[in-house]
Amino acid sequence: MHLRLNGHSLDMTQGAIGPILLQFSLPLLFGSMFQLLYNTVDSMVVGNFVGKEALAAVSATTQICNTLVKLFNGTSIGAGAVISRDFGARDQEKLRKAIHTTMALTLAACVFLTFLGLLSTDWMLRRTSTRAEIFREASLYLHIYFAGVSGLLIYNMGSAILRALGDTRRPLAFLVVSSVLNVVLDLLFVIVFQWGIMGVALATVLAQFVSAGLVIWNLMFALDVCPFSWREVRIDGGTAARILRMGLPIGLQQAIISFSNVFVQAYINVFDTACIAAWGCYFKLDQYMMLPIQSMGDAVTTFVAQNLGARQLDRAKKGIWIAFSMAFGISVLTAIVLCAFAPQLVGAFIPDGAVIEYGKKFIWLCTPVAVLCCFNQCLSGALRGAGRSQVPMIITLCTHVLFRQIYLAIATRVVPGNVYVIAFGYPAGWILCAIVIVACYRFSRWDSEYAVRWERK
Length: 457
Prior knowledge:
Helix content: over 70%
């Protein structure tokens, strides 16, 4: 059975490649930016209206939140790749099973991650050497965050389904609504009600549930290609195996990387509160640079998956390098802006001289090297879209986790007490990863029969 395309779905198997990639990735980029605003606004409100210790507490929770959520995000990427493949092949029955199996897996993940997050919060804070003066507030923030994490998971998976069908505009619109709501609730709860860090956590959770409700409504009543129905939500064994085979390696990769970052945070947490707060500010600003790169990497995954589904290998390969060129140009411009306005950007979080000085130096040290992540994201996205998700997983784990931990263990002994030596662990991992992923892509076998063999697996 074949599909009927609607005005919201983007067929990436025909037309000019550059405009198609931009049409897909720009709404995704803006959506990711608005989603990142959740935590950024939390930090700015806390830093400006609560204090440096509260900002450090929020900063200390970032990697813990990422560790558990990113395990699930890999499943959403795998589901998106499978749905993209079925969409590109115009297979209505497989697409229907993929969408409803995906949502069934999401509901199971909601239950699992809620309880896992609530049970592990204090343990993870202790493992990261969280300072006593910020422990209570960090724990409160994380408990509220994980109690309401279902809203984030449902929104992310619903958006992944829509993006796999080529629709990035409506998820963006829903995210804009919830982001504006988050800002309003942050200001209301913190400034008017004086709820402090509890207020920003509640604002984030409530806004996430609004975005989840909007995306579910959209899947049920505004999706013409293959409408979602709660009555059909069940796990199809074969479809779940396809999703997990693609997504579980990605999820494990991202979760392990984030868990590794938790231990990097532990190295940072032994320094003073100003340093911890500054590291959190740098990390949020760095994410804004990474977003265009990641969005283009996601676009490459969908582009390659759809075109291999349509047996258009040459078009798939051409799109990879067009995407890389655009990502590289944008990342260079972003790096220039971040480095030029580093003091002002850090100062927007909190007008504290020590925090600004630390944060400025973190940006100047790490940001110029981050442009190399264009290789990592775009080529990894290409391999994932072709069904080879294990390859970038192994490379990323070796360079971002194993190598980085070895570097930190040695560097902190050779140059003890220097936080900038610790911070350089990130650029060192990016450099090595770029070298290895380029070599791996260069020597991968891309022949005209690969798409057929992928389907037979």
